[in-house]
């Protein structure tokens, strides 16, 4: 303390402006940090306490700025709520996008010629995608908690890490499925029955990695159910000449992006005994993915032909093919960070196709009967 007071006097004296004593001391402090710390070491306890801002919350002026990314919003939520939001994977919304986008394709294709898709249905299916993806992740983590503990990437998941008990996750699952049922009940009876039929896939998919090297195929059947459901929600039932090729294309797309995703955990999967298409294809992955890409484009073309899509749609399908081809060509299956980058880029693929469907549909001429009805009303 005495040394600190002496330093203060020297710096405040008239001679201090000339500099030598004070500056020599300061230079000594910078060149010998350990000695300077010894001069006047404050009580370390206050330094460890969080600064308090207005209202008493930790952080004060040093608090991190609010982030509007999905991960940032989850981390800024109340602490007791965060494990549940992470269990739903709200901090990683790419899976929700990949579940939602096939729904948008179907809703867009089902729109009347020359019209935009039904915005209410798009919003309703978006809500359903958030809830059902959350429910699917909850089921997956309940089944896989013992496996997740053995893999570095998944060991921090809420159930595996012990942040949420098995009972709490079961109750939370019931809440998500109840809300998803409320969304489903907003649709027509045909769509309600069709939507309910997908629940068996949602429940059994996590078990497939124990049984077969093709769990990605089962995921594709599950994740692309919206390609059937979106059309029936608009038209009252499925037109199988459009819905089946679209559904098939979505399944092929899922085989592409989820095989890429599975390559991140390939070594861990071998150790713990989990199967995947990444292990099945191994070094032949690019050849397999190329075949799936061709099949995807054939299915999209067939769906477009059967619902009289215009050249704008096929132009975008060609762009989608180029994007997927670039993914496959530049993919390095031995680099997990590259696999993740390629996997997440598939949101762009899905959005691009949706834009192509909407613009292609707007380019169509309106139904003559509808146009005549409008003219009669005028």
From TrEMBL:
Its cofactor is Mg(2+). It comes from the Eukaryota. The keyword Membrane applies. Its EC number is 2.5.1.39. GO terms for biological process: isoprenoid biosynthetic process; ubiquinone biosynthetic process. Keywords: Isoprene biosynthesis, Membrane, Mitochondrion, Mitochondrion inner membrane, Signal, Transferase, Transmembrane, Transmembrane helix, Ubiquinone biosynthesis. GO terms for cellular component: mitochondrial inner membrane. It catalyses: all-trans-decaprenyl diphosphate + 4-hydroxybenzoate = 4-hydroxy-3-(all-trans-decaprenyl)benzoate + diphosphate; an all-trans-polyprenyl diphosphate + 4-hydroxybenzoate = a 4-hydroxy-3-(all-trans-polyprenyl)benzoate + diphosphate; all-trans-nonaprenyl diphosphate + 4-hydroxybenzoate = 4-hydroxy-3-(all-trans-nonaprenyl)benzoate + diphosphate. It holds the Pfam family UbiA. GO terms for molecular function: 4-hydroxybenzoate polyprenyltransferase activity. It is found in: Membrane; Mitochondrion inner membrane. The chain crosses the membrane at residues 177-205, 217-234, 240-257, 288-305, 311-331, 343-363. PROSITE patterns: UBIA. Its main location: membrane. It is a multi-pass membrane protein. Pathway: Cofactor biosynthesis; ubiquinone biosynthesis. Residues 1-18 form the signal peptide. Catalyzes the prenylation of para-hydroxybenzoate (PHB) with an all-trans polyprenyl group. Mediates the second step in the final reaction sequence of coenzyme Q (CoQ) biosynthesis, which is the condensation of the polyisoprenoid side chain with PHB, generating the first membrane-bound Q intermediate. Belongs to the UbiA prenyltransferase family. This is 4-hydroxybenzoate polyprenyltransferase, mitochondrial. It comes from Pelusios castaneus. The gene is COQ2.
């Amino acid at each position: 303390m005495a040394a600190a007071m002496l330093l203060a006097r020297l710096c405040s004296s008239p001679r201090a402006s000339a500099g030598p004593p004070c500056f020599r001391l300061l230079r000594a402090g910078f060149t010998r940090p350990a000695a300077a710390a010894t001069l006047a070491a404050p009580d370390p306890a206050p330094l460890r306490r969080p600064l308090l801002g207005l209202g008493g919350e930790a952080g004060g002026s040093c608090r991190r700025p609010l982030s509007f990314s999905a991960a940032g919003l989850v981390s800024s939520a109340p602490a007791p709520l965060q494990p549940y939001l992470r269990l739903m994977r709200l901090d990683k919304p790419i899976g929700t996008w990949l579940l939602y986008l096939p729904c948008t394709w179907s809703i867009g294709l089902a729109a009347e010629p020359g019209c935009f898709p039904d915005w209410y249905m798009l919003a309703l299916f978006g809500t359903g995608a958030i809830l059902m993806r959350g429910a699917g992740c909850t089921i997956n983590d309940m089944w896989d908690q013992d496996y997740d503990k053995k893999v570095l990437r998944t060991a921090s998941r809420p159930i595996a890490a012990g942040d949420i008990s098995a009972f709490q996750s079961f109750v939370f699952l019931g809440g998500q499925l109840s809300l998803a049922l409320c969304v489903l009940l907003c649709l027509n009876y045909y769509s309600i029955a069709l939507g309910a039929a997908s629940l068996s896939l949602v429940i059994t998919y996590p078990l497939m990695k124990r049984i077969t090297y093709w769990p990605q195929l089962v995921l594709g059947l599950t994740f692309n159910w919206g390609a059937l459901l979106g059309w029936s929600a608009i038209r009252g039932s499925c037109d199988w000449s459009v819905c089946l090729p679209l559904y098939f294309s979505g399944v092929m797309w899922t085989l592409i992006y989820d095989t890429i995703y599975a390559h991140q955990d390939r070594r861990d999967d071998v150790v713990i005994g989990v199967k995947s298409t990444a292990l099945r294809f191994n070094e032949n992955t690019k050849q397999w993915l190329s075949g799936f890409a061709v099949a995807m484009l054939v299915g999209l073309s067939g769906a477009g032909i059967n619902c009289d899509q215009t050249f704008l749609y096929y132009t975008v399908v060609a762009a989608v093919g180029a994007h997927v081809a670039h993914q496959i060509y530049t993919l390095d299956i031995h680099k997990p960070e590259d696999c993740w980058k390629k996997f997440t880029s598939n949101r762009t693929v899905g959005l691009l196709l949706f834009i192509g469907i909407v613009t292609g549909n707007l380019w169509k001429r309106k139904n003559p009967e509808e146009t005549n009805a409008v003219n009669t009303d005028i």
